Amino acid sequence: MSKRIFSMALVWALTLAAIVGCGGKASEGDGASDADDATTDAATTEEITDAFADETASETADDTADASDNGGFSISGDGFEFNAGDSRITIRSEDGDVSMQFGDDAAIPENFPDDAPVYDGLVITGAASGALGQEGFSVTGQTPDPVAKVAEALKVAAEGEGWKEEMVMSQGSDTRMMNYAKDGRALNYVISRSDDQTSVHITVAAD
């Protein structure tokens, strides 16, 4: 039962991190627009945590769930603990621990692999590290540089670190996916353009 709740917690955590992280890097505008964005993000976060609480409650009555007034959320049960709030999400379980950061507090994890290239000048908006049976890392960020320039720089850097290209997929000029392999690990990049920013999502994990 705890594995089922733990898996659900991770899915909801990633959804929450994505929404709050995007809100933390809103585009420039007047004060009223920024306030509206913040209100929308808070309302969406509350909806997510309420939905997660409802779903977990239907799974088992032995677990304890708590939703705070500021959008924070925690749930604990037999063999797992999930906490969300203050731009950070942590999940602890007998299957492993995961730590996530998003918004202005996000930074590349200290133990992020040295041989996994990160685009120079990337503004980090989200990061995760931990082990769910195997160690893995995730970094998300933004840059004003175009997709083609970012993709070429990461390709050269990855191959320079000994990564072997496995697959490259493009969707027009706005999206690029690149997969690499090395020493039993997988390095994946998803690069996409929206308005005047390019988003870069990097994952490193056992293959």
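the 2nd protein, sequnce then structure:
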Amino acid sequence: MNLALFDIDGTVTDHEQQFDGLYVGIVRAALDNPPIDTDWGAYPNATDSGITDALFREHKGRAPTVEELAAIRRSYRAMILDAQGVGGVIAGIASAWQALEDAGWKVAFATGNWDPIGRAKMQRADLTTEHWPLAGADCGMERGTILETGVRRAEAHYATTAERVVYLGDASWDLITTRALAMPFVAVGKRYATLRSAGATHGLADYEDRDAFFRAMHEASAPT
């Protein structure tokens, strides 16, 4: 099968800054309100599990407990679903998914969010995605692990082998990870031009130009 594997923040949804603020507030409260560096690329692993682990080790000298992680995830999900004035998506995403399926492609997600957080963000954007497989930061801190798990879950879900996998993402860590995995990558969203300059072979501001989208899906290779 041909598999289109999507990141979520900045690639599918367009409200990550608002939700970043919710996450920071919850984690600060759990850590007795220290300052939090929101340059996620500065952390060893730019994922929900990786950032949370790093912050607990920095401010508490230990990893978070299972109970602490569960409480943070519950609060974060509830706040996302209750948030007002958010819910944007990258233009053309829903029709792009339909076009992919019409063309015989399969759809799945691999995200740095915890699994239920990624689902909640898409739900908040009025996107119906529960029928597609997802791998997130519940399966590991490293993005490489998440992407590889996303492919395996898609193969199990669709009961077939992925012959071509294209990852669509919007950040430097997506480019770095796909380069390491030798996985074809399409840069999407506000930073696509920067990612093209950094080695992405194809990039799109959004999904509105269907010809350009499918050209990228068929032609993209791993970042140089």
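The CA atoms of residues 7 and 169 lie 5 Å apart. Strands lie at 2-6, 106-110, 134-135, 164-169, 185-188, 202-204.
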